[in-house]
Amino acid sequence: MVGAGCRDVLLTGGAGYIGAHCAALLASEGYRVTVFDNLERGYRQAIQRASMVSGKPIELIVGDVRDMESLRGAFAQGDFHAVVHLAALKSVEESIQEPERYQHTNVMGTENLCAAMEEFGVFRLVFSSSAAVYGDCGSDLATESTPLRPLSPYGQSKVDAEERIERFVSRTGAAAVSLRYFNPVGAHPSASLGECSDGPTNLIPVVMDVVLGNRRSLDVFGRDYPTRDGTCIRDYIHIMDLVVAHRSALDHTTHMDGAKAYNVGTGRGSSVLEVVDRAREVTQRVVPTRDAARRDGDPVMLVADVSRIEADLGWVATQDLKSMIRSEWAWRRAWPDGYASSRETSAAPR
Ligand code: WQD
């Protein structure tokens, strides 16, 4: 239930994949959720569906974390107890082509948010960080003390954003939790919320495109890695486990101080070929694959040590890979076009 004294939550990026699932969960548990989103990558319809599945109103303020005035306008509209900050760009490939854009949105946007929080006296923050901060940690599990050596401007932007938050915390005495997501996948159990992007590049949405006939085959980026079957290993986590971690982190900010980072994963790794096999089992469809060259910036293995979040927040992942794929498959069959019909015509300023 709602943590003492943090009922009213501003959720930046709440019209996105993780944001809409987060909004639905928090609203269903009695938080009063206001979404702040520029709708550049998110969908108004995702918020409508989050409101429907939670049975609660979810307000949307259209605004941009790059624009200090629009942030001030949002804080002036509500008496927020806490912020969950998900608004960011999140493509590794895109960050390599446009590193400044990632610094501007992900780092300066976070800096703006912290300034607005300080101005309006809001001192509880949950931040959407990423395992991309670690880069390649070989065959070891990544702990929160693993050196931060990101391989992409996206990962670097998350390191920089965490540092801005630490400065905000030491300046104001705020409480902040940074959640370092491993590989979020899957969809809401209602199958009415899920990941929706034009031309996905992440493994499981691409596999679903193959199953649905939108793509002829899956390119397997490298079969010669030093792993059990030669393909990369990742820690896939169900989106619903991930958003529960956000609620646990939000509650945790009511009885902690300082800034703390937590890995959010299952602690178990799956290879690319194992994901393909589970997808074949779940969908009972063929998934043709084609061997392709390694993808730049891919670490061999990235699996979380999740002992700290379990010890401090009592959170553990509950859903396995088949459950993740089953939920993704249900979403994609129920809504083959995702939220496409609700794409906003006026994109936010670039
Ligand atoms: C997983 C594995 C690919 C597609 C990224 C970000 C991370 C997070 C999740 C935001 C890799 C292989 C993939 C394909 C393939 N994003 N693959 N063929 O790269 O681990 O993580 O997304 O927070 O920060 O870094 O996820 O799903 O793209 O790739 O072989 O068509 O699947 O090489 O080994 P990744 P992914």
Please tell me about this protein's structure.
This protein is α/β, with parallel strands linked by helices. The chain has one domain: NAD(P)-binding Rossmann-like Domain (Rossmann fold), CATH 3.40.50.720. 39% of the residues lie in helices and 17% in strands. The chain is built from 11 helices and 14 strands. The strands form 4 sheets. Strands 3-2-1-4-5-6-11 form a 7-stranded parallel beta sheet, sandwiched between helices. Strands 12-9-14 form a 3-stranded mixed beta sheet. The radius of gyration is 19 Å and the shape is globular. The termini are far apart. 53% of the residues are buried. The C terminus is likely disordered. UDP-4-deoxy-4-formamido-beta-L-arabinopyranose binds next to helix 7 and strand 8.
Key descriptive features of the protein:
11 helices, disordered C terminus, seven-stranded parallel beta sheet, three-stranded mixed beta sheet, alpha/beta, 350 residues, binds UDP-4-deoxy-4-formamido-beta-L-arabinopyranose, Rossmann fold
Overall CATH class? Alpha Beta
Q: Tell me, briefly, the overall form.
A: globular
Number of strands: 14
Number of helices: 11
Q: Which CATH architecture would you pick?
A: 3-Layer(aba) Sandwich
Biggest sheet, open or closed, and with what strands and sense?
A: 7 strands, parallel
Instruction: Tell me the number of structural domains.
Output: 1
Low-pLDDT segments: 345-350
